[in-house]
Design brief:
about 325 residues; alpha/beta; Inosine-uridine Nucleoside N-ribohydrolase, Chain A; 9-stranded mixed sheet; two-stranded antiparallel sheet; 11 strands; binds calcium ion
């Protein structure tokens, strides 16, 4: 039986890659996409979610438009690294007639969770706003979700501030409420493991050579990420953060995961910082989440590429074996 998932997202180049991986895996059933402001404003992230479904011929999957404002009622600062349209300037390549559903994403989440209690995994790969609002709206929501996988937070270094990862920084209050809510199982897949899986130039070149509609799309939308990484850090890579949540769902052995008590700083100089207490050492051994500590990059590359491009499986495996 296929495993049901909901993806709450802010596409976003890396969200697009996560959604593409999920849509191309035979054992995953994407039940819906929910949008939130983050990598772009809500108009763009909602439109981009629809465009990604169109690209994969999956306009049967509904898209629910979510929150534009964080819990503090401010519109988060969006991310420049993915261009004005959130897809590296290439959103215009895909046109779709599919419209978002009338129902708000928060209402959908509450309703769906009641109707499918215990049956689905929830992916949060943008700011946590929609999920925090669902928790506030329905105290039972927390009990209906089988598992939560979050791309957010970090340990050791940030990308929105010296200590904060963007998604948690954009709505720190929401991130804190989600982690404190008491979900049965929450895994924080943070910047410390998503930074190393960046799309490297040689792999990206492989996508150009494949020359399918999908590989060409990925090649193009990741260009702006490479340009930004080159200017800021002298690296020829494109960020792929969010995709690691779906890869981990497919193969849990990709990550070393440690029980932890995780809090999020909601104000002040460290706003958005995830405070990771491994094994709950400072919380009487009480853990509210799992923390992803390390990642196997070569195996991630193989899983991502062979799932999205099964027609090139032999070439991909051979290349990774000899070069990674
Ligand atoms: Ca995202």
């Amino acid at each position: 039986m296929k495993r049901k998932i909901i993806i709450d997202c802010d596409p976003g180049v890396d969200d697009a890659l996560a959604i593409l991986l999920a849509l191309n895996h035979p054992e995953i059933e994407v039940e819906a996409l929910c949008s939130v402001t983050g990598n772009g404003l809500i108009e763009h992230t909602t439109a981009n979610a629809l465009k990604i479904l169109k690209l994969c011929g999956r306009e049967d999957i509904p898209v629910y438009r979510g929150c534009n404002e964080s819990l503090s009622q401010e519109v988060p600062e969006t991310v420049d690294a993915f261009g004005d349209d959130g897809l590296g300037g290439y959103a215009h390549l895909v046109e779709t007639t599919q419209q978002p559903e009338q129902e708000h994403a928060v209402d959908f989440l509450v309703r769906y969770a009641r109707e499918h209690s215990g049956e689905f995994t929830l992916f949060i790969i943008g700011p946590c706003t929609n999920i925090a609002q669902a928790l506030r709206k329905d105290p039972e929501f927390v009990h209906h979700v089988k598992e939560v996988l979050i791309m957010g937070g970090t340990k050791g270094f940030g990308n929105a501030s010296p200590v904060a990862e963007y998604n948690f920084w954009a709505d720190a209050q929401a991130a804190q409420e989600v982690l404190a809510a008491g979900f049965k199982k929450v895994t924080m897949i943070g910047l410390n493991v998503t930074h190393p899986i960046a799309l490297e130039a040689d792999i990206r070149e492989m996508l150009r050579i494949f020359a399918t509609d999908l590989s060409t799309f990925i090649y193009k939308i990741t260009q702006v990420g490479v340009d930004e990484a080159w200017q800021s850090a002298g690296r020829l890579v494109a960020p792929m953060h969010d995709v690691l949540t779906v890869a981990y769902f497919i193969d849990p052995t990709l990550l070393e995961v440690i029980p932890a008590h995780i809090d999020v700083v909601t104000e002040g100089i460290a706003e958005g910082e995830s405070v990771v207490d491994l094994y709950g050492k400072y919380h009487q051994g009480q853990c509210n989440a799992h923390y992803a500590a390390t990642v196997d990059v070569a195996r991630f590359n193989e899983l991502f590429l062979t799932t999205v491009f099964p027609e090139f499986k032999d070439e991909i495996i051979q290349y990774i074996k000899e070069n990674k």
